[in-house]
């Protein structure tokens, strides 16, 4: 279903783009099919008059659409090489940001700007600017494909009062391209839209910043917690509000107030309903009665004393100057991260995808969850096959030493419609511990005896977002299939998540601290600033290991793996985590290469190339084979390349490889080394290099 756009497409007076392509394959936004989504636009470079047309038939970002053009990639890489040469001459290490504008305006848009908001036939001019800050000027985000309403508004790059000494943009060289074009989704706040945009400096969010509508009389002010719905087509200037002293929300009660009276009476009267079923003679409903809570004054004083510290802490956490700002932030954020999972469209989509989720039963060991990845192969956690220190796989991780079944359609409590499939004893891949990059791994890829191959979730992959809502689907406790929408706990707030659980009472603290000590390796892993795991709080515990984790666009981002459980009137957990699916796929490809499993490499590559977010994975894997070349890699390289050539995007991948090979002197030297004849033959046959005449 096409996304509903409240704002009209950008006219020729305002569009542009900023971001850079990475050498490694870029993970782009989700790109589901959208019925009726078909439009085109053109692009050009400032020093060239030629215009190149782009046709887009599915929802994506503007940058993602541009990257489908080999001409864009070629011209951009050429521009970046020229900039690199200049930087080397000047001995600087500045990064370059893309800026894409319409031919008649200077209103740069973010790289993740939804392409369908462009006017059909729009012409974009692409240029680059240096970035002295070293900070990325755009944030990864997702293109929404559901029934979303968008608004477009503009913010001038130079602010008003109190901003002359404050930096508003991460990259100051973007200031001449004013005003910046911002898109928002109806129902979200201005702060959310600006945070997603990614081009604004931290000053915008740490100071008390408000927007003032340009040329309005009297001045129309918009605070950061205001919804974007009413801002369509308006232009604003940022100002920083004075730090006015405000009356504390915890000020003592004024004379004559109800709270003061409550103190004097040493008790509080709470309204309660009379639960009697009797009615009056007139048939009136039961009335409220006041019930006195004895000795409540002391409790009230303690709460008031603690409240002041709580407000101070929350102001610091949410970077607000006023208590009213904290309240607005909390009310705006509450439920927002998971509200997408209450939409019928999203729920139906998840239900269809849940058909790929199964319960894994390891006879004599326990249960867990898994899901169909591609073809006949399922993905689950490796720790399901280890119990009380005993491993139920052989020493070489080649075979399972217990009977394993996968049960699909376990949804009805009466047990109907079950589909139980045996799992082959031969292990495709089994990795548990740390990988070559010192990342935590805990996964097993197994083969089913028979299954419908049309529902694999590999093609539903998306890079994991750093914030927002997620949904787990699994079989906790070996029971029926369940879902649990929850919210990502950002990396920098994991410590807070642990601290929130501690301090309730001595017994609880002891249980939680014991759990942390027993899982010290996991705790240190999650607290590492470079850790890539996805963390959240879920009610799916034992038996849910191996569950797929979906983002708000119903894309698979990770596999639920574990947490920090403790017993307190049932099993509870402090925080849970999932391994990013990309980590698993990277390690899986390397293992298949080491085992020279050409059949699986071919199947995997064909399926992966149906997902736009996995094109970079295949591209980087080919680069890995060349960089680490051994004659034994020949069959794997040929198998992957043959599968690539079957795909309609093979020319783009081929062009990237050719550019990379030409720029890497070591690669050109490698193919001339004795013993690397197979690599040289592959390069020449596929026109990736041309030897001098």
TrEMBL record:
InterPro entries according to UniProt: Peptidase_S1_PA, Peptidase_S1_PA_chymotrypsin
Gene3D superfamilies membership: Trypsin-like serine proteases
Residues covered by region (Disordered): 243-263
Keyword annotations of the record: Hydrolase, Protease
Biased composition range(s): Low complexity: 245-255
Protein name, entry field: Serine protease FAM111A isoform X1
Organism name: Salmo salar (Atlantic salmon)
Taxonomic path: Eukaryota, Metazoa, Chordata, Craniata, Vertebrata
